[in-house]
């Protein structure tokens, strides 16, 4: 079922504050991320699939078509979304790769935890870099 703009706004208002003139924008990759804020946001939006709307519903998305995904992205811009940079590796690289090339078991293992903010691969990468 496609969500209306008002329904998306209502869902996001339950877990995010609205942007205003004093809202500070985040810069992806600038550091100082609040990983817990991103994790809370993803956990609170996973049931409706608003974090990764084009992913299958059974794996944390909402089976959104391109138009609905664009609408969700547009409404997101009205809210102060936490910096999701620490979760981008999973949401934008690993997730789509597993969706396209993974087995059913791999999809089930990785995608729901990524969509819910329970799987965050960036700390592992940063720890590995510190050891070099």
* Structural class estimated from helices and strands: mainly alpha
**How many β-strands, per DSSP?**
0
How many helical elements?
6
Give me the CATH fold name.
Answer: Butyryl-Coa Dehydrogenase, subunit A, domain 1
β-strand percent reads under 5%
Distance between the termini: 48 Å
Q: Which CATH-level-2 architecture?
A: Orthogonal Bundle
What share of residues is helical?
A: 40-55%
CATH superfamily: Acyl-CoA dehydrogenase/oxidase, N-terminal domain
Determine Rg (CA atoms, Å): 15 Å
Q: Spans of 5+ residues with little confidence (pLDDT < 50)? A: none
When the domains are counted, the total is 1
User: Major sheet, described briefly?
Assistant: none
**CATH class (first level) name:** Mainly Alpha
Question: Could you say which overall geometry the principal axes of the C-alpha atoms support?
Answer: globular
Q: In sequence order, what are the helices and strands, one letter per element?
A: HHHHHH
| Mean residue pLDDT | 87
What is the element layout, followed by pairings?
Blueprint: H1 5-13, H2 35-45, H3 66-76, H4 85-101, H5 104-115, H6 122-131
């Amino acid at each position: 079922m496609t969500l209306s703009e008002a329904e998306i706004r209502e869902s996001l208002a339950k877990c995010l504050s609205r942007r205003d003139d004093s809202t500070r924008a985040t810069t992806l990759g600038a550091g100082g991320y609040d990983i817990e804020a991103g994790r809370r946001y993803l956990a609170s939006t996973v049931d409706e699939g608003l974090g990764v709307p084009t992913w299958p519903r059974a794996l944390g998305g909402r089976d959104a078509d391109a138009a609905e995904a664009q609408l969700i992205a547009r409404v997101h811009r009205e809210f102060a979304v936490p910096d999701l940079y620490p979760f981008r590796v999973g949401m934008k690289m690993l997730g789509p790769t597993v969706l396209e090339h993974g087995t059913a078991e791999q999809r089930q293992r990785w995608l729901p935890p990524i969509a819910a903010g329970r799987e965050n691969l960036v700390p592992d990468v940063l720890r590995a870099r510190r050891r070099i």
